[in-house]
Amino acid sequence: MTRVLLTEMRRGEAGKVALLAGAAGVWYLVSADAATSDWIGWWNQASIKVQVFGVIVMGSLMSAAAAWTAGRARRTRADAWSDTTPRGGWAQAVLLWATGWLWSLLVYAVMAAVAFQRTAEISEVTAPVWSPLVLGVAMTGLQIAVGVCAGTLLPSRITAPAVGVLWYLVFVLFAFLPGTRAARLFPALDEHWDATFQPNTSRLLVAALWCGAAALALLALPALVRRAKLTPGPLAVLPAALAVVAGGALLTLRTPAGEPFWAVPSEQPAEPACVVEGRVRACLWPDDRHLLPQAREAARAVDRAVGPLPGFRRDFHQTGLRATGPDSAELPVYQPMPDTAAMTEAMLVSALPPRPDGCEPPVRPETDGLPDAFLVEAVVNSRAQMPTPYYGDRFAETLTQILAAPSADQDRWLSAAATAVGACRPVPEAPR
């Protein structure tokens, strides 16, 4: 049996397709820029990146290759000879499935190693996340099983490309319908999990059980339909029953509003990673402590711009961390490796008090019809030596007028403007 498996892996199409998909996947992971990527540096996102590529790209291609290999005997009229082997129809289907799945498992492991290596180069925390990868392995097995069944029952030359395209269309459809419960049965976790969330390991493992059991149950289908020698009989009941139970659990589980199905909120850390510069404090999730140098430089720039001024917020906590008081501000971090400029911009935006709920932003003529808070942000950015967008000639003239005023006048205007924004009042006239 092992010799037949190795022979089929060596001579079949699955190996070539897997190596092609693996080369594309490795290039995709290696070519990503760490400064602009949305995954390098976050273990959650690194696992999701590999899982998504493995399922959507490699899984679809391997399913098509399995369909082509499974239909080869009947296309070449060798099925009468292959049916005389001592192995039953289910065993033959499992053998074909194993040749493709083992190749995909090998390539999948290489891609995971590349992705984890890139994240380890940035993150100061060594905590790889495995549960999304386990689901990806099981989901790829289900895709290959569908290809084996389709190729065995419909041994046409068009079946293989049709199966691959069908899988891709399924994932595109569910991407536009993320709330559909049926999407839980065909998971491709194209989600964003930063430090705020952790994988829901139990649900991911239930989904992996569903995919694995469904794959084994499907592989018995060709033998049952064709009534091949040594049909599976009662043996097919066990994986089918497991698939029904696990799939039913996925369809009936509920998630609190606002939370993803496959993840849970992270527990609050006992000690966040914080930096203090003058009057400004910035705290991050411990897993993001590799960003402390950028946070320190950003806090220093914010302290120079608005540190001594009342009305502004100077206590920043990364999204998901519990605020310490009404003057605390949320610090959004959209990338695992933002530069100092991006961190400074995020702090400066959060430093301005938010307007109360239901407040209609006042608009001044000198801001070219834009909310007056834009002018306050532009002044603060300029004082922090950050670039300011161009909003029009009149807006630029007003900004230049404020920046040309004495520092004491600027401070008074900024303090009054910050208080006005927080109280839903128009900001005062610009100093002259």
From TrEMBL:
<feature type="transmembrane region" description="Helical">
    <location>
        <begin position="94"/>
        <end position="117"/>
    </location>
</feature>
<protein>
    <recommendedName>
        <fullName>DUF7224 domain-containing protein</fullName>
    </recommendedName>
</protein>
<feature type="domain" description="DUF7224">
    <location>
        <begin position="283"/>
        <end position="424"/>
    </location>
</feature>
<dbReference type="Pfam" id="PF23866">
    <property type="entry name" value="DUF7224"/>
</dbReference>
<feature type="transmembrane region" description="Helical">
    <location>
        <begin position="165"/>
        <end position="184"/>
    </location>
</feature>
<dbReference type="InterPro" id="IPR055648">
    <property type="entry name" value="DUF7224"/>
</dbReference>
<feature type="transmembrane region" description="Helical">
    <location>
        <begin position="129"/>
        <end position="153"/>
    </location>
</feature>
<feature type="transmembrane region" description="Helical">
    <location>
        <begin position="204"/>
        <end position="223"/>
    </location>
</feature>
<keyword id="KW-0812">Transmembrane</keyword>
<feature type="transmembrane region" description="Helical">
    <location>
        <begin position="50"/>
        <end position="73"/>
    </location>
</feature>
<feature type="transmembrane region" description="Helical">
    <location>
        <begin position="235"/>
        <end position="253"/>
    </location>
</feature>
<keyword id="KW-0472">Membrane</keyword>
<keyword id="KW-1133">Transmembrane helix</keyword>
